[in-house]
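Job type: complex structure
Entries:
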Amino acid sequence: MSAHDFKKLRGSVAIVGAAESDELGKLPHKSALQLHMEATRNALDDAGLKKSDVDAVFTSGRNMANDLPEYLGIRPRFVGGTQVGGCSFILHVEHAMAAINAGLCEVALITHGESGYSRIAMPAPRWGDDSTNNQFELPYGTTGPATGYGFLATRHMHEYGTTSEQLAEVAVATRKWAQLNPKAMMRDPLTIDDVLTSRLIAWPFHLLDCCLVTDAGGAVIVTSAERARDLPKQPVYVLGTGECATHQMVSQMPSFNKWEAAEVAGKRAFEMSGVKHADIDVAQFYDAFTIVPMLALEALGFCNAGESGAFVSGQRTAPGGDFPMNTNGGGLSYTHTGMYGIFTLIEAVRQLRGECGPRQVADARVAICHGTGGVWSASATLIASNEL
Amino acid sequence: MANTYTGPVPKPTPETKPYWDAAKQHQLRIQHCRDCGQHYFYPRPLCRHCLSRNVEWVNCSGRGRLHTFVINHRPPRNFPVQQPFVIGIVELAEGPRMLTNIVGVDADPKQLRCDMPVEVVFEDITDEITLPKFRPVQA
């Protein structure tokens, strides 16, 4: 298969199982690996598969691709450890699809577990003194995502007149979805004024522009479309995928008024899928901060550059709006462990199976997931459907 | 001064040492590619644009524009500044962008503007390490 034949991958694999850990939230009684294990068990049950069916493991985090086979007692013949931050798990679907199509494996487990809040059995996050980060960013008092993500919000405000109120629209709409999801951590009513009067974390971000920090796990199972049809639940076919990485330190980002990695990822996902924007019924866009799904809307072509502020205004992405986005309550109100990407996949699967109860998007046929990793560093896009 | 600074202190590597040596002399030095003609930052032995080995160190004008910024209201633990401060991305006149602090101005979004002209200043944080920072150019 040559590079221009990627469209042949369309619909070749399906997500057949998806689940979180037994609990989500503040879990000081559970290690990161335990959260992986619970999510894996639940996703296999959801798929109607056994541990012995799994022959490929994909995960992210330091040493995790070694930890997981040991902890779960699995001996995979394909190992995926791509770690580009929170969207890694969306990339893993593309990598699993490639491996399954190449005949290297049949049933892929993609798993995430992170004790993001309680920090139980988590690797130390410290950069070395001679790392590029500690030479060129940390001496200036950066605090990771909270400072890194804001640079694009400030530039967007300068170039396009985007306002803090427009950013707050995203937080408020997402909270309305969370109120319909019993698993969401934050379910109290929220107003735009609440967001604007919450304390500043890193201007232009207020506290309520920022995602939660939680403990949770999540996992999905991917197999060939052919095998998926023999399993008990509705297969969620992968129609298109794309990925890209451009930098590690935010100061090295190619542009500060657009998200180039997301443009690359989204372009291939749409080309592979053959899906048009108007065909998308529900969107799961990684919302580490309110500005992130807004720039995804622009980069993926749902609106033009600079128009995302207007796009999200009037609660357009809330329940009842014409662009249902982050229907689980997102990283802003449902859960955000640190690497949220897996949860975009889980919610897309549930929406396409019609399992979402009061937050179900009526007749959802096509879903899009999109994630960021690092500080706008990497992107992954996935388009999926319950029909081919 | 040597042991009192509480913030992160860069440890140079072989390829970044000329940059830090220059900063200690209060000079902002970056690299320039003789083949493709472009400047780049941070330091690397081969051109980050075309991978040429034909690169040289050049002194910067020290002038640039504030491309974008945030105001950090939650300083890192033990960071020397414990009130809100400005972190900026400066686009140097020579082209490359670098992350820095904007000093000499209130940490107030009304006092700052994307694309405002800025110039380099130097802060000696230890006997060995000097941090280039930037301030608004006085009108």
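Summary: Chain B has one domain: 17-136. Chain B has one helix and eight strands.
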